[in-house]
Each structure stands twice: as structure tokens, then as C-alpha cells.
Amino acid sequence: xxxxxxxxxxARLGRAIARELHRDHRVIIHYRSSAGAAQQLVEELNSVxxxxxxxxxxxxxxxxxxxxxxxxxxxxxxxIDVLVNNASAFFPTPVGSADEQQWDQLxxxxxxxxxxxxxxxxxxxxxxxxxxxxxxIVNMADIHAERPMPRHPIYCAAKAGLVMLTKSLALELAPxxxxxxxxxxAILWPEQETGDEAAQAQILERIPLARTGSEADIARTVRFLxxxxxxxxxxxxxxxxxxxxNI
Length: 247
Description:
Layout: E1 2-6, H1 12-21, E2 25-31, H2 35-48, E3 53-57, H3 63-77, E4 82-85, H4 100-127, E5 135-140, H5 153-172, E6 177-184, H6 197-204, H7 215-227, E7 236-239
Parallel strand pairs: 1-2, 1-4, 2-3, 4-5, 5-6, 6-7
């Protein structure tokens, strides 16, 4: 059975991806501070299939953090076949008020960590191809990597970098490892905006399919890239109801 590491997997999209991949993978639930939610998810998944899920706590702020997480994940079941870089910080940084700490946090979680974690796992991901399949990395990008979101210049720059990192790694790690990105649109409202009905209505008006998506839409797309797309690499798949056509 193949092994998958999902970062930021204790809640929201990461949790949905973990549940979806657990259908035929053992999964490592990475978390930073959500220990209770991570353990609850592990217990849920292990009740379905024993010894199929484990939680690992780790910061992702430095290359050393990423290397340590990669080592722990690899040791758990003898290798990692799938890496999903899902962990992400998100908050506004209007020009004139942004500081270096915000820069480091947004660039660190959205770009630096995916690179150093991918680098640390490159060998074990490459070995996955010996079984007749391929190692696989899926990065969680954003439709605003191409079209900026007001008041979020650092976040958008980080996600734009992640898109280029996806393409670069797809070239660097080929042919043993495939690397792709999923770019969600309006799936889950940011926690700080859940009560802003006017802002939500304004966004919905610009979505051609006239509705938000679901966590399952993202999770199924990740699963497709992992299990059903052996000839797809270096691509960014927008799951946004057509929102990128009308930003």
C-alpha cells in the first residue's frame, strides 16, 4: 500500500484530502498546533483500517523543520509515495502596513516549506516509481496566483511562486516524480470572513457556476492527480467554478 503525507491535514481542505486518499493509501496527518483535531482524524481513519493513519507534529518554518518531518514520515512505513503540500498561512498584508514577519510567515508556509519538504523527500518519492507507478507531489496553489487579490500582495506572490515551483520541480524530478498543483476558488470562506455576507455575495456573483464548491471537489481532484493521471505533470488545475474567467 502506498503512503501519503499531507501537510496541514488536521482540518478544512487538508482533512478532506486525507480522508479521500485514505481510501487506498496509508496517510500521515501533519499538523502544527491542532493536536486534538489531528488525533481525532487519526482515530477515525484507523477505525476504518488499522495502522493506516498517524499524526506527526512539526513546524515548517525552516529547512531543518522540513527535513526532520521528512525523516519521521519516511521512517513511519518505510517510504513516502505521495506528498501533498497543503499547509498555508493566509491573511491580508496591505501595502503600507505589511512587515517582515508577515512576509516570512506567508512566503515560508506557501513557498519555502513546499520546496524544502519536496527536496527532503525527493529520494523516497523517486523510489516510488520502482513499483510501476510514480512518486507524486500535489501543491495547493490558488487562482490568485495569476490574478491578484486586493490587500493580499504577499500571499499572492507566494502562491505565484508555488505555481512556478510546481513547474520547475516537475522538470527537475522527472521522470520518477510527477508534480502538479490544484488551484481552489471559492471553496471554504476564510475563517476571518465567514460572517461577511455582502463580500460573499459579491464573490458569488462573479462565479459562472453561481455557487461555491465543496471540500470534496478539491479532495477528488487531488486524488485524480495522485491515482488516475500518470501522464500529467507540471500542470495547475483550477477548481473554481469558472471564477478565474471573471475575476
